[in-house]
Amino acid sequence: MDYNSMAGAEGDIREPMNEQAIANVYASMRNEINQFYSKITELEMEVSEHSLVINAIKPLDPSRRCYRMIGGVLVERTIREVLPAVQRNKEGLEEVIARLNEASEKKKKELAEFEAKYKIRIRKGDAEMKDESKKEGNAQGVLVGPAGSN
């Protein structure tokens, strides 16, 4: 949802927006940024899987049989056929990740401008503050030295 869509049909933003509308737009913008992060993380995992496959089959004989899942169907191919396709897929995923990162940065700038315009500040809830203080104050660990060292 674009906060400009909250304006009238002419495209001008009516001032002042009520607090609930501002909160809704702000929450929507933050949700979009979180969706970008989720998708980027998912695609980075796929790139990692592609890298594992590439590293596993690259040193093998190019005429060796391998199997590839295409549209839910397992097909038999050779490494010579599969390796370039997997590399192209990996490169495509990396391009999509780069575009998503750019879009995410743009959305973060929009969010920062929105925060500045409406003087929005995030306050942590009392429960979160208590949880954080517990985490910091109760950090305990066990140090173990080499066996037989006294």
TrEMBL record:
It holds the Pfam family Prefoldin_2. It comes from the Eukaryota. It comes from Salvia splendens. This is Prefoldin subunit 2. Belongs to the prefoldin subunit beta family. Residues 127-150 are annotated as: Disordered. GO terms for molecular function: unfolded protein binding. Residues 127-137 have a biased composition (Basic and acidic residues). One of its GO terms (cellular component) is prefoldin complex. Residues 83-117 form a coiled coil. The lineage of its organism: Eukaryota, Viridiplantae, Streptophyta, Embryophyta, Tracheophyta. Keywords: Chaperone, Coiled coil. The keyword Coiled coil applies.
